[in-house]
Amino acid sequence: MHRVHAAGALAAPGTRQEAQQDSGPEKLHERLHESLQESPQAPPQERLPESIPESIHENPASPAAPRPAAAGLRAGWTFPKAQGGPGRLFMVATPIGNALDFSPRARLALESCDLVLAEDTRRTLALCRELGVRVKAVESFHDHNEQEKEPLMLERLKAGQDLALVSDAGTPLVADPGYRLCRACRRQGIAVHPVPGPSAPAAALSAAGIPPLPHCFLGFLPRDEAGRRRLFASFAKVPATLVFFERKDRLQDSLALALEELGPRQACVCRELTKVHEEFILFRLEDRASHPDALLGELTVLVGPPEGGQRSSEAEVREALEAEALAGGKPKAVARRAAERVSGWSPKEVYALLQTPREN
């Protein structure tokens, strides 16, 4: 098992304490703002304003903060809106861990829209306070009320209001609510625009060192073992890297199921992406002793594609089964041990062969 993490890589030796005292998102935004203001390379017309014009701030109670966005960006952050036509729905990506990944365009989208639809209003408002984003209004919009609120949001859009939709973290609709509303807007001719940004699957694929193309994103795995087994089995023959989210308390069981249904493959557990304790744990599915355990934080898991190496012959597998049968154990345990001795066979395939009589 190979572990790579980012802890301790954010400050130079001898400056750790100073970096910790001056590394919060507000301080970093201020330093970014000041450096862009003072840069001699930037022509005067591109230098940053002291603040975004107050005309778009309908919430005077929000705290003022420097904004790292040039005034020229305001006119170009979105597309022209038809006079008297319907509003637009913006799918706005938010940070998955590091607040500095929040883009200037995402800021302008949230501040300019008439209403922000949030999976969790508390988390969204906390992010807005942290970054000094002034929104006009926020309303909850999640799996449990999406169907109920969809008609109301469509009426707002038809009346000309612009809406922004955000999830708890990352890009909306990628394992988050919003698909129903997006589909309804498309069917009724209401424009839907992405405001792209952070995404855990893309971040994991970009840095894990496992083949990124093609890949299949499975979202959150089913809670029940039977559901996870069926899901893995349905992708067993797909020549692609599998990407999914999993809870830390189910990780060991899910990796064991992946081995049974998918066979020997490379894998990586990506933990705390973009945060201080970011870590990439690389291992082999068939090396059960290397499966990571007792992890903290949010997990994104990659399982590499089927490997094109030499696949053991049926005769070799039967020979391994006979050897393991002498060691004793239940048939499934015998098949699992035999699968570890051969190449290109999953424990499930070896068990099926064990149940098949040898042809004379």
Q: What's the quick description here?
A:
With 360 residues, the chain is α/β, with parallel strands linked by helices.
Mind explaining what this structure looks like?
The chain is of the alpha/beta class. It has 3 domains: 84-198, Tetrapyrrole methylase, N-terminal domain (Cobalt-precorrin-4 Transmethylase, domain 1, 3-Layer(aba) Sandwich); 201-303, Tetrapyrrole methylase, C-terminal domain (Methyltransferase, Cobalt-precorrin-4 Transmethylase, Domain 2); 314-354, no CATH class. The protein is elongated and about 80 Å long. A 6-stranded mixed β-sheet has the order 1-10-9-11-8-7, with helices on one face. It has a 5-stranded parallel β-sheet with strand order 4-3-5-2-6, with helices on both faces. It contains 13 helices and 11 strands. Helix 6 runs parallel beside helix 7 (179-187), helix 11 packs across helix 12 and helix 12 packs across helix 13. The chain has helices at 16-21, 25-38, 72-76, 104-112, 121-131, 146-158, 179-187, 200-207, 225-234, 251-262, 314-326, 331-341, 347-354; strands at residues 2-5, 89-92, 115-118, 138-140, 163-166, 192-195, 215-220, 241-245, 266-271, 279-284, 299-303. Helix 9 (225-234) links the parallel strand 7 and strand 8 (241-245). Helices cover 36% and strands 14% of the residues.
